[in-house]
Amino acid sequence: MNKLEDQMALISQIYLGGYPQVAPQQAAESKPRRRRKKNKGGENNLSMTKKRKLSQEQVDLLEHHFGNEHKLESERKDRLASELGLDPRQVAVWFQNRRARWKNKKLEEEFSKLKSDHDEVVLEKCRLESEVTKLKEKLCEAKKEIQRLGERVDRGSSNSPSSSLTMEAMDTPFLGEFGLEGYDNVFYIAENSYNNIPGMEWMNMYM
DNA sequence: GACGTTGCAGCATTACATCA
DNA sequence: ATGATGTAATGCTGCAACGT
């Protein structure tokens, strides 16, 4: 009997024997999965098929080999199996399960690293946003100051030309008051014109 | 080249053991 | 006794190698 026939025979045996419960996920699919029978046989059957935990010594050796190489060639499997007094199939299964655990662990590690990176970026974003808010406030204050000074200049020029106060006449750059030394030209940038400055497009969001 | 068989890996799932 | 967790084992699928 070939493998397929074997499987079909098993399927029909199980279906004829009853299929008490299908997991929700499986039930939704067109193809039901085969359900394994519970191991509730007699004592002999139990001892034949009962799941046995590997000894610490066996696990240690398997771990050692897994550490060297995650893949298991046929020759190494047989050698390991006889060394451990296990069925080669058991060794293959152990490696398969171990690879799955290793993969899960790696995924978890990768996830926690990505999460911490993400948290850092979020933190930095908050910091930059608060900085932008502060700068916006300063900008607003500076604009008001310019307007106020402009009005004074206008009044002065209409009353007494000789006492006019001009921007050029100021002893020190007034912007220093706002901690914006060296940014004298910042107010000459027209609104929405940040699009023209590489890397500064985001500023328009705040204008 | 087409087809069947075999062996293996990956994945999902199940069943059992153990522990809190 | 029971639910959570860990893990050995099983079922299924896809793929590659090989023989016919």
From TrEMBL:
Record localization: Nucleus
Pfam families according to UniProt: Homeodomain
Disordered: region residues: 21-54
Domain Homeobox: 45-105
Any one GO BP annotation for this protein: response to auxin
Main localization category: nucleus
Keyword Secreted: no
Cellular component terms (Gene Ontology): nucleus
Coiled coil: 97-124
Keyword Ligase belongs to the record: no
Entries under InterPro entries matching the protein: HD, HDZip_class_I_plant, Homeobox_CS, Homeodomain-like_sf, HTH_motif
GO molecular function, one term: sequence-specific DNA binding
DNA-binding region range list: 47-106
Membership in a protein family: Belongs to the HD-ZIP homeobox family. Class I subfamily.
Biological function: Transcription factor.
Protein known as: Homeobox-leucine zipper protein
Highest classification ranks of the organism: Eukaryota, Viridiplantae, Streptophyta, Embryophyta, Tracheophyta
